[in-house]
Predict the structure.
Amino acid sequence: MRVSGFWSYAHRSDAADRGRIVELARLVADEYRNLTGTHLDLYLDVDSNRLGEDWRQKINERLRRSVFFVPVVNPLYYWSTECQRELHYFLRKAREPGRRELLIPIRYIESKYPEHPITPILDRYLWKGWADLRLTSPDDEAHRRAVHSVASRLAELPTSPAAPDEHAAPGLSAVLSTMTVAFEAFAKGHSEFVDHAQAGDVHAAVSHLLGRATAFADTLWEIDGSAAALAATAPEISALGDRAKGALTTLVRPVSGLRENHDLPERTRLLCVLLEAMLTDARTTIEGWGAGRQR
């Protein structure tokens, strides 16, 4: 069996570096094959037209199958909503019982955002420094040794995610109750967001709603499998899902507008990137329930 993993990077970074980030992934995969004699199933999203829920469902499916995740971090990574979404999705999956996933952050360019919310998350893992190596030739000895080091860590991984502990799936009433409570808390956060914003405290508004959106996305993740299975026959789940999706969709545009507002402090705009990622993640999860009705 193959080891499956996900290479997370900002497309604009790869383009600016003349394709070297994608090339690095391929060098790691080639070295893995040298070490193990087997193919590394390393997912590289090289499609520049990253649009639509079908595309996000494809990304989510690859993330579910992955036993390792490599974020290639540079300044543009912090500003990418999709990169933030991929990171948080993988981290939630890795918290499932019985999982043994590996996260290897590559510091491709030194970060100038030490106070960014994802920095302490990534700092819990062993960074691979690449700021100097990216300026060297792939044939340079130091570069080759660094590629070998990453591939060696991957060679120690299992070939597929460990099966989570078996638990009885919650029934309709439990799923509906959990989702209702979570949605009401999120809706309250939406109202408070508007109040803060109208009072002129945009940073507090975004920060507060980010916490609510993250909690809501986490709850949706926890009930995802059961809700998807129930949605086909339970109109209550579908109706509440549609309400939640509508609320999430309504918020994405103004949050995106705040992210692009250069009159706001940078720290506020960076929070907007994370908030947009959480809103999009929650919406994509609910979209998946509808997709399940067609499967």
Remarks:
- Residues 172-294 form one domain.
